[in-house]
Amino acid sequence: MPRTERGAAVVDFVLVTTVLVPLVLGIVQVGLVLHVRNTLTAAASEGARLAATADHEPAHGAALTRARVAEVISDGYAGDVTAGATTVDGYPGVVVRVRAEVPALGLFGPAVSLDVEGHAVEEQPP
């Protein structure tokens, strides 16, 4: 190996690493934010379906949503859950809303606000 190329591998490694590591960490963080959003949406939809049954109220759907979010992710994301009446394509229904702050840059970075909803048409008694 000629003397002029000594240490070139170290420089190449540092240059590639400074680009590759933030890129990989960014992809992982986007995946985590999407996982939280999808989990909140699924929990809100499940809560709305429960609240729309004939023998339950919107408060039952909100409670189920909180329980599912706390079970899958964390209690911290289940703090702002509301449920109420709405119309779904002209029919009476239930909506469950979840609002949560998700860190966008690591565990301590600035947060992204997520607002998700789950809707269901109410069961009508026979």
Radius of gyration: 23 Å
The averaged pLDDT comes out at 90
How do the strands of the widest beta sheet line up side by side? 1-2-3
Low-confidence residue ranges: none
In DSSP terms (H or I, runs of 4 or more residues), the helix count works out at 2
The number of distinct β-strands equals: 3
Which structural class best describes the helix and strand composition?
alpha+beta
Helix content: 40-55%
* Outline type: rod-shaped
Separation of the first and last Cα atoms: 87 Å
What is the H/E string? HHEEE
How many domains make up the coordinates? 1
Estimate what percentage of residues fall within beta strands: 25-35%
The main β sheet shows up as: 3 strands, antiparallel
Written overview of the protein:
This protein has helices at residues 8-51, 58-72; strands at 80-88, 91-103, 111-121. The protein is α+β, with helices and mostly antiparallel strands and 126 residues long. It has one domain. A hairpin with a 2-residue loop joins strand 1 and strand 2 (91-103). Helix 1 (8-51) packs antiparallel against helix 2 (58-72). The longest helix is centred in the first third of the chain and has 44 residues, at 8-51. The N and C termini lie far apart (87 Å). The model has no long low-confidence stretch (mean pLDDT 90).
